[in-house]
Design a protein that fits this description.
By secondary structure, the chain is an alpha/beta fold. The protein has 2 domains: 147 residues, Rossmann fold, CATH 3.40.50; 201 residues, Dehydroquinate synthase-like - alpha domain (Dehydroquinate synthase-like, alpha domain, Up-down Bundle). Helices cover 50% and strands 13% of the residues. The strands form 2 sheets. The chain has a 6-stranded parallel β-sheet, with helices on both faces. A two-stranded antiparallel ribbon has the order 6-7. Strand 2, helix 1 and strand 3 form a beta-alpha-beta unit. Helix 2 packs across helix 3 and helix 5 runs antiparallel to helix 6. The radius of gyration is 20 Å and the shape is globular.
């Protein structure tokens, strides 16, 4: 059995680290492409441009406000002159585009997340969507970012909903990685999980159970506290390492299925949280364990019902569409240690929703 663990080259986290990014840049070359989420250009363009210039790079900046599709990534690649490093700053979609562009240009890559809503900053893959915004595929690039710079002051100033979304994504990491570990399923590197990855996934869950509620309260005030630092690390680094090197299972596959419904108003993490609850039902987890997770989700302000992620039509035919997409042959739901069918997923979604509504109503 071959075990594979992957990680970014260096991870830097702290208040104000974006203002001294030149300390952490150690790349050869003289040209840098800076891909910026349009919504945060006024915040990050100057410090990133100054830091890159101080490191000897000529900077070409490109504003992004697009869903990651193959065509859009190709257009950005064509737009960039010869470059030695690609730096991306923004949310998960901006960073997915950044990683895909860097992979096609075969250059070094730096990710600078401005929200802690997903584990995209550290991962070696990009989530690719259709023009309509539906999940299409995962593109595996074969390498992780060379440098990840996480400024917790920026993270705390971002919308709290996005911080919560990252918590949901990180909570799923443990349940999926543990299932994959027990099933001897392969991770995204086509190897088996190390004990290290399994332990990191568990630590992500324990960190959030210990610090999550306090961290959310602090972020609501745009404050950075030790609990915020702990949860940002769980959302970004622990979750990223845990899902890639530990493995995925039903929760993210169910998320992918839900993207085929009209739920584009829900964040990635919000849909993943319903996926996690559904995975626990699908696996027949004990009542206490299921209720504990749902009650923690409620305390953190995360959705526990289909209605809360925007699904008002919960008939069997609608759920079947999501379930069939979740069970596509390429999906990680097949890392579960038993055969999973669309019918089983529909039943689990209905049950998860019912239990969530019961506990939500008190």
């Amino acid at each position: 059995m071959t075990r594979i663990f992957g990680s970014p080259g260096r991870y830097v986290q702290g208040q104000g680290v974006i203002d001294s990014i030149e300390k952490y840049l150690s790349f050869d070359g003289s040209q840098a492409a800076l891909l910026l989420d349009e919504q945060i250009i006024d915040i990050v363009a100057e410090p990133l441009g100054t830091g890159l210039a101080a490191s000897g790079f000529t900077v070409e900046s490109i504003a992004l406000d697009e869903v990651p599709t193959d065509d859009r990534i190709d257009r950005i690649v064509d737009e960039i002159d010869a470059t030695d490093v690609v730096v991306g700053a923004g949310g998960g979609r901006t960073l997915d585009i950044t990683k895909a562009v860097a992979a096609r240009l075969e250059t070094s890559i730096v990710t600078v997340p401005t929200i802690a809503s997903t584990d995209a900053p550290t991962s070696s893959l990009s989530v690719i969507y259709t023009e309509a915004g539906d999940f299409e595929t995962l593109q595996f690039h074969g390498f992780n970012p060379d440098l990840v710079v996480v400024d917790t002051e920026l993270i705390a100033a971002a919308p709290t909903r996005l911080f919560r979304s990252g918590i949901a994504d990180a909570l799923a990491t443990w349940f999926e990685a543990d299932t994959a570990y027990q099933a001897h399923a392969k991770n995204v590197f086509e190897g088996h999980s190390t004990r290290t990855a399994h332990a990191i996934a568990r630590e992500a869950y324990e960190t959030i159970t210990e610090h999550g509620v306090t961290a959310v309260t602090a972020v609501e005030q745009n404050a950075v506290t030790p609990s915020v630092e702990a949860v940002v690390e769980a959302n970004t680094l622990m979750s990223g390492l845990g899902f890639e090197s530990g493995g995925l299972a039903a929760a993210h596959a169910i998320h992918d299925g839900l993207t085929h419904l009209d739920l584009h108003g829900a964040t990635h993490g919000e849909k993943v949280n319903l996926g996690t609850i559904t995975q626990l039902v699908l696996e027949g987890r004990p009542k206490d364990e299921l209720h504990e997770f749902i009650e923690l989700s409620i305390e953190l302000g995360l959705p526990v019902t289909l209605e809360e992620i925007g699904l008002t039509e919960t008939d069997a035919a609608t759920l079947r569409r999501a379930a069939e997409a979740a069970c596509e042959p390429v999906e990680t739901i097949h890392n579960e240690p038993f055969e999973v069918t669309p019918s089983a997923v529909v039943n689990a979604l209905e049950t998860a929703d019912r239990v969530g509504r019961t506990l939500k109503d008190g």
